[in-house]
Amino acid sequence: MTTTQEALLPGTRRALLHRIAVAQSEGRAPSLVAAVVRDGRAVWHGARTSVDGHAPDEDVQYRIGSITKTFTAVLVMRLRDEGLLDLGDPLEKHLPGTGAGEAAIAELLAHTAGLAAESPAPWWERTPGSLRPELTDVLGEQPLLHPVGRRHHYSNPGYTVLGALVEKVRGAPWEEVLRDEILEPLGLHRTSTRPKPPHVGGWAVHPWADALLPEPLEDLGRMAPAGQLWSTTGDLARFAVFLARGDDRVLSARSVEEMRTPAAPAEAADVVDGVTYGLGMQMQRRDGRLLVGHSGSLPGFLANLTISVADDVAAVVLANCTSGPVLGTVGADLVRIVAEAEPRIPEPWRPLREVDPAVLELVGQWYWGTHAFGLRATADGLISLAPLTGGGRRARFQRNGDGTWTGLEGYYAGELLRPVRRSDGSVSHLDLGSFVFTRQPYDPEAPVPGGVHPEGWRGLG
Predict the structure, then answer these.
(1) 111 with 158: CB under 8 angstroms?
(2) What's the whole-model pTM score?
(3) Could you give the 3-state DSSP secondary structure of residue 47?
(4) What pLDDT, on a 0 to 100 scale, did the predictor assign at position 6?
(5) Who's near 146: CB < 8 A, 6+ residues apart?
(6) Which residues contact 221 (CB under 8 A, 6 or more apart)?
(7) CA distance 207 to 323
(8) DSSP assignment letter at 367
(9) What is the pLDDT of residues 346-388, one digit of tens each?
(10) φ, ψ for residue 355, nearest 5 deg
(11) pLDDT digit string, tens, across residues 89-119
C-alpha cells in the first residue's frame, strides 16, 4: 500500500504565504503569485496584491520572459530525438547564411556559441519586433563576440536563431510548432505568445517613490523564441512536472534529464556561486540541493521556475514589475520550505522482478588497486558502482545486450564495463575503460597493469 501526501500541512502553507508576502511587500510588486508542485501536482497557490479585494489566481497570465527559452530548447531536443539533426551539427548544416554557422546546435542551447548577449540597438525588449524582421537584423554585422565553445555568454539572439532553426526543419512557424508539440499535448491552454484575458499589465515602480509607470507591451517578432510567452502559475506548474519527469508525448525522461545536465564551461565566478547552464535550463546549488529551471524578465514582468528533482518539489513565482523582488531567491525558498518541513517520502523498496544469474555473479565487492568498491544490481535493471567508503567516482551502468555495460554518468559516462571470464566461464575481473577491478586487492591471478610483485604483501620488519 502506498502512502501519499496530497495536502500541505497548515504550518507549511503559512510559511509559504509569509515568504511571498514579504517578497511582495519588500519588493514593492503590484502583484506576486506563486505555486508549489509536489508529487507531480500543484499543491499550493498563493497571491499577494496591492489592489484591495482582488487577488490573481492560477489562471491569470503574466509575461514569463526567458522561461520561453526552455520551451524552445524542448522543441530542438525533439528534432534531435527524431533524428532530424544532431546536437553536434554546425548550425550552417541546417540553417545556412547566418554568419554564426560554425557554432554547434548544443552550443547555442548552452549559450556557448560566442554570440552577443543582445541584438543591435534599439533595445529589443521595449521596441516593436517589426524593427528586426530578418535574422541579420537580430544578429548584426558581427554575430560572434567570443570564440565558439570557449565560454558561457548568455545570448538572446542565440535563441532567436534556434527558433529559426525549428521553423526551417519543421517547415512551419515557431508559434505553431510550439502549440502543436508542447502546449496542446501538455494541456498548457493558458500559455500563449500574446496575452489572453485575464492577464495583468506590466509596471515599472519608481525606485525612490511608491509610484507606478506602465511599461510597453511589445510583440517581439523574430525574438519571440527568446522571450515572448505569457503563462500562468497553473500552466507553469504542469510544465515543471514535465521538466522533472518527462512525458513521452513531448520528450522522454532521459532527454529532459539531458537538458538538466551541465553543458557550459563555468567561469570562476560561476564556480564560486555554484551556478551553471544545461541545454535550455539554468542550474544552481543552494541550501545543499541542486535546483534547475529558468528565470525570466521583460519590462514590467519577472518570472521564475525552480525545481528540486531530488525532493520532487517545484515552485513558480510571477510578478508584474520591472524590478524589485528577487524571484530566484523566492522560488528557492519556497522549495526549501516544503522540502524541509515535509521531506519526501521515498518509494517503497521493491526487489528485482527477475534475477539474472550472470548479473548476480558481478555484484559485491571489487578492488581497483587498493580502493574498495561495491557493485549492486538495482530494480531498474541497471548496475551501480561506488566506493564503499568516502567520496570518489561512482556511476550507474546500463546493459548493452552483449554482456557489457555502458556508464551513464560522471567519470565513467560512456565508458565500457566488460566482465572478463576465465576459461571455465567464471569472472576473473572487470575491465572498465582499461581499469582492472579484481575481487582481491592486486590479485596476482588477474592481469593487473604493471603486474604484481612476486613476493606479495609484506610488513616493514
Answers:
(1) yes
(2) 0.91
(3) strand
(4) 67
(5) 114, 153
(6) 128, 129, 130, 131, 132, 133
(7) 9
(8) E
(9) 889 888 888 899 999 999 999 999 999 999 999 889 999 999 9
(10) -105, 120
(11) 999 999 999 999 999 999 999 999 999 999 9
